[in-house]
Amino acid sequence: MNRGPWFFAGVLLTFASSFGGLILAPQLQIGRQSVVPLEGLGQFYPPARPGQARQGAAVYQALGCVECHSQQVRSLGSDLQRGWGRRMSVARDYLRDHPVLTGNLRLGPDLANIGVRLPDARWHLLHLYDPSSVVNDSLMPRYPFLFDREPEHARFPSPHALAMPPADGAPQCRLVPKPEARALAAYLQSLRSDVPLFEAPILSSPAAPEAAAGIPGP
Amino acid sequence: MARPMSASATSAATAAAGPAPRDAAAAIAVSCRGPVVLLVVSASVWLVIGGVLGVVASIQLHAPGFLTHNAWLTVGRLRPASMNLWVYGFATQAGLGVLVWLVARLGGRRLLYPGAIALGAVLWNAGVTLGVVGILAGGTTGFEWLEMPRDAPPLLFLAFLLMAIGALANVVFGREPAGSVPQWYLVAALCWFAWVYPTACHLLLVNPVRGVLQAAVNSWFTSNLLGLWLTAVGLAVVFDCVPARAGRPLANRGLAVFGFWTLAVFGSWNGLAPWLGGPLPRWMGAVGVVANALLGLSVAAVAWNWHLTLRGRYSRCRTDWVLRFVVSGAVAYVLASVAGFLLGLPCLAAITSLTLAPVGRTQLALHGFVGLTLLGAIYDLLPRLLDIGWPSPRLIRFHWLASVVGVALVFVALTLGGLNQGLRLRDPDASFPAVIQSTVPFLGNASLGWTVWLAGQVAFLGHVARLLWRRCRQASFIPARVRTLNAAHPSRNP
């Protein structure tokens, strides 16, 4: 390879250009973004997650939910009309996340605003135990291993028990979500990016606000 | 392996004088035997294990009740585990094996540092095992193709460095002047992996960048791992195999230079194309789309060059199984590149982004292009290294048929399924679960495709096992002793 040094230099330079362009440049552009104060509320956006929701994020990560669920409302397609968000997702929404689980496949609905659409923890727990019991036609797998069961007339009933018998028909039992399940539900409740930002204002389109709040579906 | 090598070294030295280049080639093959067979055989084992996990994960996508009672058997873990096994267990490992063999052969010299390379192979397999067990146990990092828990990447990178430095030494100190087309791709591939893998690990796991930039780094990483590292190894195999098997030199070297440098420039810039319309700065997706289009120059140049070299000799694919695998892989490369370009176009991306279609395209590039070319290279190199022919041509034919049919079925099913999904989702009133239900037939066909594909890979692994078993039975697997034995009893080795 008599032109070896030039070859090496070429390979490294071309790749350095990609590193500079796709890693360094965006870092310079948005790497210093920080949380924004919400006027009059004394709070910041994005908010820090409460401890249980943070544990739930770890459960979400460990179970690989990102394989089927995205967390990004896009401007292309029907995301906004579908009520998945009142505005498209922007870089600032993810400032507190590590890992950032934007996802790249939607075999399940987008979850960027699931906490706005479905704020009820009990709904999430039932859904985790048996998705098709709350959503018709759901193709989501069940997560029975996130639940314990306790006898119907336990001496010290768990405060978290759900008034629902297990799917295998054992009638004398009630379901008790394990801490992982409750954490995951808390995380899902905490997923909301509905604060208007300078770079992503909420436009008053006819579909957006009411639909986003009222849709009972997934 | 030291002793047998020195034994064959003497025969190589005598051969170097001129009369018998076959002996020199054989000596090089023997010198590669230890590390390359280790890499290739362990890659084949991971290929089948990853395939089994992949089939189960694929079935779970349309049959959600299948195996849900253990966390490690759910699709959220099996899917990344199977992809990691494919990328690191099979493709990268077999790629390194093929790469080591190619640099030794093209350098015209017995393999230097076989011990370091073999040690690297052992460490690599330890890293893959650790990582995949970690994913199944719930330790995933959440980053695509970097799901392995944080302990695995340092081990993998160390292993890679051992193998890469060993391989580079073979290029630099080779006897033949380096500079053939496959060598460009191989050397560049090593540089690219050595840059992109530790950089991504550092910026995502060790010292993470903030917020959505993680997603950008992740896309940059996956696109480069596939589009530069694995692609370059696959292209090196094609550029090595096609002229040799067609029996004529490469048609146009200038075109090859052009194809290489356009890949180097644009191949590393297209990673962010899927982010058009997403939460990253808009220019990033746009740059990716442009790079994707310009990358078409490279693909066209490379494919045209192959075609000119093979023109009039395509019929050799009928009898030459290595060429048939490699040409099928080359066709998959062109198809996957065209599909990648089309799916990146804003008008189509508006429909297909975040659907199954990009998944199908990635699988075509991985299992069609990278997989078939590497398998073809393995069919070429194992008999040479072990000095024994494949036991059963029928198994090879079955393997080829199952691989091609399986990958084609998966690609078509996922692409059509993604289009169906994207088109239906455009109607905001269509209920989301109903839309996903409508993709079930497509997902079912993809599972069928994976099953067919897996059957081929199981046959392949069985075939490799039979080959090794025969080789051991010939009792010449430990050559130093065996040579004398064979010399004493020529009937043992007819």
Characterize the structure shown:
The complex is a heterodimer of chains A (218) and B (494). In chain A, 34% of the residues lie in helices and 7% in strands. Chain A has 218 residues and is mostly helical. Chain A has one domain: Cytochrome Bc1 Complex, Chain D, domain 2 (Orthogonal Bundle), CATH 1.10.760.10. In chain A, the strands form two sheets. Chain A has a two-stranded antiparallel sheet. In chain A, strands 3-4 form a two-stranded antiparallel ribbon. Chain A starts with a helix and ends with a helix. With 494 residues, chain B is an all-alpha fold. Among the domains of chain B are: 24-178, Four Helix Bundle (Hemerythrin (Met), subunit A); 313-479, Cytochrome C Oxidase, Chain A, CATH 1.20.210.10. Chain B has helices at residues 2-16, 21-62, 75-107, 114-136, 152-172, 181-206, 213-246, 253-266, 282-310, 321-344, 346-352, 356-386, 393-425, 432-438, 440-473, 479-488. The radius of gyration of chain B is 23 Å and the shape is globular. The relative contact order of chain B is 0.09. Classes of the chains: A mainly alpha (218), B mainly alpha (494). At the A-B interface, helix 1 of A face helix 2, helix 3, helix 6, helix 7 and helix 8 of B.
